[in-house]
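Standup notes, protein team

Yesterday: finished cleaning the Dendrobium nobile set.
Today: endo-polygalacturonase structure.
Blockers: none.

Input for endo-polygalacturonase:
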Amino acid sequence: MILFFSLFILSLESFSCVVYSDQAVAGSLKTFSLRGLRAKPAYYEELQQIANFKRSNEKVLTVEDYGAKGGGVDDTMAFGKAWNAACSSDTPISLLIPKGNIYQLKPITFSGPCLSDISVMIMGTIEASSNPSDWNGKNQRIWILFNNVNNLLVLGGGTINGNGNIWWQKSCKVDKSQPCKDAPTALTFNACNGLTVESLNVINSQQIHIMFENSKNVIASSLSIVAPSNSPNTDGIHIARTQNITINQCTFATGDDCISIVGGSQDVHATNITCGPGHGISIGSLGAEGSTDQVLGVTIDTAHLIGTSNGVHIKTWQGGSGYAKNILFKNIKMSNVENPIIIDQNYCDSTKPCAQQKSAVQVSNVQYNNIMGTSASNFAINFNCSKSFPCSGIILQDINLIKNGGGSAKSFFANAMLTNIGTVIPTTS
Ligand SMILES: *[C@@H]1O[C@H](CO)[C@@H](O)[C@H](O)[C@H]1NC(C)=O
Ligand SMILES: *[C@@H]1O[C@H](CO)[C@@H](O)[C@H](O)[C@H]1NC(C)=O
Ligand SMILES: *[C@@H]1O[C@H](CO)[C@@H](O)[C@H](O)[C@H]1NC(C)=O
């Protein structure tokens, strides 16, 4: 009998979660336990915000119920337990990371598939362990990984801080005596179908801030991604082998590409983007080390690039194969941007010079429409295409780019088949 009871209590504890109903937010707080447990007064104030974020009928479970403490201790285990509870819930559930605390995490994987839809509400701050040895024996490219989770929603207004300083110092791009090694991506979404990531601040990632790979039907919106302009390889959003993704209302200021789109990506849309400092919006690099890459269907509509080292950039290595096609850049404002419009088929991000090669990733059907502003370099338009696979179907329509501070900029084109529509400044003839 005693044994029976203690087992019973244990099972209550391990499945504990707090349930907030919508009536609770409207007035009389109705907090009840799903299978036991307590509510914390501090959460009551957040109820309205939680109600705004959560999908209807979702229960709410918090990482603190699984032992997360915040304030400098390692919370990796508690987050893992909370995820397992959420992922095995047989009804839709929200996993809450409460406001006001800083939770420290070592590398962690949140794996699906899950029994029900999950929302992860990050209202507080999640910070990476600052000790690279926590990655010993682990994948150096991963800090937080969501793997194979469908209909996942990640949101909440909180902050994810990669604490990247120590990794930047050890980067071979910063300290030439160091070997070139991988560093973690703060947030990786792999094989997620029907994913929404919104209202988050992602800062100081060790390397790439957010990576979408092997995923489809993705919305990323209202994200603020910030790292120092001299932090190496800190791309904002990196998209690989992902189809049907929309990025909107996002602000980027980092040390590398604001958005980078690489092989296997299709139907990529970005709207209302602010980018800078950083390296601009890039398709590529593609075709590295003789690889075959395919990018099909990219629209960048409404963006402001400020002081970036490139504007809208397509970059491919010599010796690769595949294609980048059906690409539209429109309604883009450039403010003091180094290479506002650029296609570089001789891309070479290597310490050794890259040898001339015959094969190339074919670039075709690329439209630039309504692109205005100022160039920091002489060449506002630069199409440096492959001799053996010239860029084809390049359309420039209503372009007006002058040199920053006044004066006219120039255009350069090699092996590019161009059509001009409307006024194109600088001229390409
Ligand atoms: C693209 O993804 C969005 C967001 O998940 C979805 O609503 C839409 O139906 C998808 N479009 C296609 C063609 O699958
Ligand atoms: C564009 O995004 C900014 C935030 O980056 C937002 O304040 C603004 O309302 C958005 N504009 C439109 C037209 O969506
Ligand atoms: C075009 O590419 C070649 C090979 O990388 C490079 O030497 C040249 O400077 C480039 N031209 C311009 C105008 O960028």
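Follow-up from PR in the comments: The mean pLDDT is 89.
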